[in-house]
């Protein structure tokens, strides 16, 4: 990973912003995909703009995008793109969605960007470097007890089967008034900046989580799967993000 990778990541986020901002709270087309999730004109335009930049500047790299699939899948370097993480929030006019950009090397996330194009907020994390928020260092907050943690998740409806009991075990371990719902990738940026202590989610795909890992961990936090293992391209989509890594065992115990 080089300085040029960081420059390209910023350019990708800028391109996505330029495609998304004119359509926010405006008129655009939408449709449902095969998995019943929504995709909008803004999703497609933002990903197309980002893919063109990667193809022009790093033609040997692979691309894995939510809307247009994978190209050059055998490449060791893969750019993972989610143009709008939180399309429902975009549709509803809530500026808490984000663009996710990750660079993966041999299946491991080494660079991640969470960009909120309406508020103009951008978290960038790089392997071996600290995370920044709008160019300034971002840092997680300590959390002495799980009972004191602010817990975030996008929606409890994403949990099914035994996952419901696991999440509820964590939810019962924190103060009821410190649970926040909604936020998608924005919650992970808030972990990196020390405002949220814990995020627990399931059912995520690679484009949903790859960018989050360098951002959270570069700020001093940690991300793992529900067994406490590091996150990579083969992870099953059940993730834990912690501002204070010391609370991992508490969370795993609460999950049962």
Automatic annotation (TrEMBL):
Going by the UniProt record, its keywords in alphabetical order are: Hydrolase, Magnesium, Metal-binding
Q: What is its EC number?
A: 3.1.3.15
Keyword Hydrolase carried by entry: yes
Does the keyword Metal-binding feature in the UniProt annotation? yes
**Main EC class the enzyme belongs to:** hydrolase
Cofactor(s) required, per the database record: Mg(2+)
Residue ranges annotated as transmembrane are none
Listed GO MF terms: histidinol-phosphatase activity
The record's section on Gene3D superfamilies has: 3.40.190.80, Fructose-1,6-Bisphosphatase, subunit A, domain 1
- Source organism, top-level taxon: Bacteria
Q: Which CDD domains match?
A: Bacterial_IMPase_like_1 (cd01641)
Pfam families xrefs? Inositol_P
Name the InterPro entries on file: His_9_proposed, Inositol_monoP_superfamily, Inositol_monophosphatase-like
What the record says about family reads: Belongs to the inositol monophosphatase superfamily.
* Protein name as annotated: Histidinol-phosphatase
**Which source organism?**
Erythrobacter rubeus
């Amino acid at each position: 990973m080089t300085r040029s990778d960081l420059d390209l990541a910023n350019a990708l986020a800028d391109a996505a912003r330029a495609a998304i901002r004119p359509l926010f709270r405006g008129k655009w087309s939408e449709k449902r995909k095969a998995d019943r999730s929504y995709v909008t004109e803004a999703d497609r335009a933002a990903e197309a703009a980002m893919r063109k930049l990667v193809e022009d500047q790093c033609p040997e790299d692979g691309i894995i995008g939510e809307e247009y699939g994978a190209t050059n899948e055998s490449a060791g370097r893969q750019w993972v793109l989610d143009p709008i993480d939180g399309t429902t929030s975009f549709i509803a006019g809530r500026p808490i969605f984000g663009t996710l950009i990750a660079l993966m090397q041999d299946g491991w996330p080494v660079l991640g960007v969470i960009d909120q194009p309406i508020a103009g907020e951008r978290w960038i994390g790089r392997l071996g470097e600290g995370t920044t928020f709008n160019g300034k260092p971002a840092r997680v907050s300590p959390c002495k007890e799980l009972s004191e943690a602010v817990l975030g998740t996008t929606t409890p409806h994403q949990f099914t089967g035994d996952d419901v009991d696991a999440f509820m075990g964590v939810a019962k371990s924190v103060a009821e008034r410190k649970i926040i719902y909604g936020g998608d990738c924005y919650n992970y940026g808030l972990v990196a900046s020390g405002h949220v202590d814990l995020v627990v989610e399931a059912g995520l795909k690679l484009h949903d989580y790859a960018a989050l890992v360098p951002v959270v961990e570069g700020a001093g936090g940690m991300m793992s799967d529900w067994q406490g293992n590091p996150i990579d391209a083969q992870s099953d989509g059940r993730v834990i993000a912690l501002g204070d890594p010391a609370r991992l065992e508490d969370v795993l115990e609460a999950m049962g």
